[in-house]
Write the structure tokens for this entry.
Amino acid sequence: MSIPDSRGDRSFHPGEEHTESLASRLNWLRAGVLGANDGIVSVAAVMVGMAGATEEVWPIIVAGAAAVLGGAISMALGEYVSVSSQKDAQEAMIVKERHELETMPEEELEELTGLYQDRGLSRDTAELVARELTAKDALSAHLETELHLNQDDIPSPWSAAGASAVAFLTGAALPFLMSVLLPVALRVPLTFVAVVVALALTGAVGAWLGGARPAWAALRTVVGGALALTATWLIGTWLGTGMG
């Protein structure tokens, strides 16, 4: 734990990130990994399914391009709607807290004091801390202590949508390019191998960022992806044979 020293430094470890900032970055990284994983699986399933149905490259390109574009837009839209709802809720809480501070400051000061008492401070110390923080920035003190919210850290829906789309496109690039560029005889098996390796990596990294066991997460992701690819290839082969 970082403790301010007598010279007024913020920490004995000036390069150390705050817990909330680090957690926020890890959440963004984990969302990016999951977005890439979605791109890999969904586009690979379409590409392998089409490869099972036909050996012609043009239908595979058309289907793959539709899957890439549609998936990226869907991911971006879903993230935009989700983060917009979160942003609206946080902004509403900020407005409500600001109104309460303006209309009932004494009650809010007492509430803040009680929150610090609940954390183990004595009444006198809790009141002193509450008064000093209120004098410095009452709104921030209440948001952080009462609602665990930082008014300067409101997520951007547009940034979230863009990051989600980029992550999806990054993952989708692998199966798309391999299915299009590889010769017919190697198209499905090499795409399958590359996707399995990529899924193992994304599964392990996602688990590591979330504090879970990488090996188990990688295995689970690989098995799920392999099942998806096998199912779509079998369906594509069956439909291709039926149409032939």
